[in-house]
Design brief:
Elements: E1 14-18, H1 22-33, E2 37-41, E3 52-54, E4 67-71, E5 74-76, E6 82-84, E7 89-92, H2 94-101, E8 106-107, E9 125-128, E10 142-150, E11 157-160, E12 168-174, E13 180-189, E14 198-201, E15 212-213, H3 229-234, H4 236-247, E16 250-251, E17 256-257, H5 272-289, H6 293-302, H7 308-314, H8 320-333, H9 337-353
Parallel strand pairs: 1-2, 1-9, 2-8, 5-11, 9-15
Antiparallel strand pairs: 3-7, 4-7, 5-6, 10-13, 10-14, 11-12, 12-13, 16-17
Length: about 350
């Protein structure tokens, strides 16, 4: 994997980042690397929750981030088939990652991101990277899980569907200290228990704040996996390219002056391809939630019967072609004809009612 490309502009820019979770951290760090005057506001300490990523989704600048463990996960289908994913999986060492990437001032005070102005923070642009747990509304699909720790596991398991409950799977990862984290997970539900250890709104409402959203605030949560960390790392430089071009009225492709009233520079998640892929993925999630639990499980397992490279791209936001191709191959591969009919009916019904948008 090559080194990340970074554009440079001979103009100054002051950036304020509110929220120093993995998304805000990545954007602030990459801004500091390219010489932007950046300050972050984050009242909380380094996050304690486990952050895991597939190494092949990380940009070049992030491939050597400190890790607690590195392994190769497998999937177990409900009938006991073991499917190796042949992908490197990393559990990040949060404390060391934050220490390495915090190359900018951090103010440990709360900020009302919905009311504060850029001028009040001494910035040209404010980025809202606070996350979305507080954006939950009843009826919203969420991923939930309960944690437990063990020392008797022997491998990294991305999904283990060998459960009598077709709505649940077990996720098991090594923590690098002889322990394994096991999460009893419901991939998506609209009737969640708020008391769980993991609570991820899969389709947060569109951002309506006054600033530039980033990370989960900008819709980076993958509706199938609940993952957003790697996407936040991967899009950091492209986002800064667009923000610098906007600030200095330049075309990011050529570094020339360009009137943005006629042709604004799109942020990477605002491009037609990314928006279409996100909308389609959310539509698919709504379709799955309309199916019986056993049909839903069989379709999810179908992702891991795809060719490895297609499966990898299918689970990364922004690959519209891979999503379409993966959907077609999963449908063709369903062995139960009734599941195929249910899937077509659920997708058609949700398309007609407009429900897949889910906010």
């Amino acid at each position: 994997m090559g080194l990340a490309r970074t554009k440079t502009y001979n103009f100054s820019m002051k950036l304020a980042v509110i929220g120093l979770g993995p998304a805000g951290l990545a954007l602030a760090h990459r801004a500091a690397v390219r010489g932007i005057d950046v300050t972050a506001w984050e009242p909380q300490p380094v996050p304690a929750h486990i952050l895991s990523v597939f190494a092949d989704e990380l940009p070049g600048w992030a491939v050597d981030l400190p890790s607690r463990s590195i392994s190769a996960p497998v999937v177990y289908t409900h009938d006991g088939a073991r499917v190796p994913l042949h992908r490197e999986y990393r559990v990040l060492d949060n404390e060391r990652v934050w220490e390495k990437l915090t190359t900018f001032p951090v103010i440990n005070e709360p900020v009302n991101a919905d009311a504060v102005t850029a001028a009040e923070l001494g910035a040209d642009i404010v980025v809202d990277a606070r996350g979305t747990r507080d954006a939950y509304a009843p009826g919203m699909p969420v991923q939930v899980a309960c944690d437990r720790y063990t020392t008797v596991a022997s491998e990294t398991v991305f999904m283990d569907f060998r459960s009598p409950d077709p709505d649940r799977f077990t996720y098991t990862i090594p923590l690098g200290d002889g322990r394994f984290l096991q999460q009893n997970t419901i991939l998506a539900t609209v009737t969640p228990d708020r008391g769980t250890d993991v609570f991820i709104p899969l389709v947060p409402a569109p951002y309506t704040g006054p600033h530039v959203p980033y990370g989960t605030r900008a819709g980076f949560i993958h509706p199938f996996t609940g993952y957003s960390v790697a996407t936040s790392f991967r899009l950091a430089d492209k986002t800064l390219d667009a923000l610098q071009a906007r600030e200095h009225n330049l075309s990011p492709a050529h570094g020339t002056h360009k009137p943005f009233r006629a042709s604004p520079t799109l942020l990477p998640w605002q491009t037609p391809t990314f928006r279409a892929d996100l909308a389609l993925s959310r539509r698919c999630l709504a379709t799955l939630l309309a199916l019986p639990a056993d049909s839903r499980r069989d379709i999810i397992e179908g992702v891991f019967s795809l060719p490895p490279e297609l499966a990898r791209k299918f689970l990364i936001l922004g690959n519209l072609g891979a999503t379409l191709k993966g959907m077609a191959r999963i449908w063709i591969g369903l062995r139960d004809g009734s599941h195929k009919a249910q899937l077509i009916s659920a997708f058609a019904t949700s398309t007609a009612t407009g429900q897949p948008a889910l906010g």
